[in-house]
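During the second year of the project, the team shifted from modelling isolated chains to modelling whole assemblies. The rationale, set out in the original proposal, was that interfaces cannot be judged from single-chain predictions alone. As a representative example for this report, we include one of the complexes processed in the last quarter. Its constituent sequences, exactly as entered into the pipeline, are reproduced here:
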Amino acid sequence: MQANHVDGLYWCKKWLTNTFTQTCAVRPSRHSTSTHSTSATGYNMLTDHEKELIAKIWDKMIPVASDIGAECLLRMMTTFPGTKTYFAHLDIRPRSPHLRSHGKKIVLAIAECSKDISSMMVTLAPLQTLHVYKLRIDPCNFKLLCHCILVTLAAHMGDEFDPVAHAAMDKYLSAFAAVLAEKYR
Amino acid sequence: MVGWTDFERATIQSIFSKMNYDDVGPAALSRCLVVYPWTQRYFGNFGNLYNAAAIQGNPMVAAHGKTVLHGLDRAVKNMDDIKATYAELSVLHSEKLRVDPDNFRLLADCLTIVVAARMGAAFTADVQGAFQKFLAVVVSSLGKQYH
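Output from the structure prediction step:
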């Protein structure tokens, strides 16, 4: 429906304006505390326990990477229609092979990185280059996908995705997104 | 005025009619206080918010979570004029409570995740889209009277 499409864009723009401020406002602390392990990136926001929790969750997602990845992308494009503009070259209907293979790439990259969060800057260097020079996705969209990843995890894990796991995962995904965007300018 | 499709209206009514307010309200607010700890600044007199367990077990947080969730009932019943419905509450949050309006979005995100966890696979992409559009309108309306 025409009215709904316009509404969708309007609300997406409002969401984008607000979320980019949030992404900029949250900076990782550079002060090391006894409960936080120092990482090569200087991101000390994750405790060792949180890193283990994150790695465990993503390890379970690897065998179902296509399903999970496709679901995250579909949720993002449905809730935030402006994000569809980056997928004009793909078939993004539910269950399409494009959506599944693209979703799988994203989930596997996030899962791989979660195995050694301290080396994030090194692991993500090729993806940084890809996003800066080729994809050039506006970084405010990373936050939208991160949110939809959290929703997907919640829908699959139920109560197991408790507030502590949610907080840890949110911090990890924010750091991941920040590293991806670091070379933009 | 916001345009709602039949699917969106039906989805919102369905979610809220089936919702267990005593469970979801406390879960959403406590999750917000854990995941975004700076939101605790508004709850200085709520007692022990020292860690996640304390927050989730805090009776004042639970009670307030229910209050806030029931606050959404007005919007559910008046989907065609949410802005006017929340004009008074917006003034309250701005002038008296002095809540940064960005916090409404943070709580809305946590509520979405709690609902997703409760509904599981039934919380499809389309259902999520409708739910988040509804919450975006609520969040915007609550921020409207700030100046």
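Chain B touches chain A through 33 residues (CB under 8 Å). Residues 125-143 of chain B form the longest helix (19 residues).
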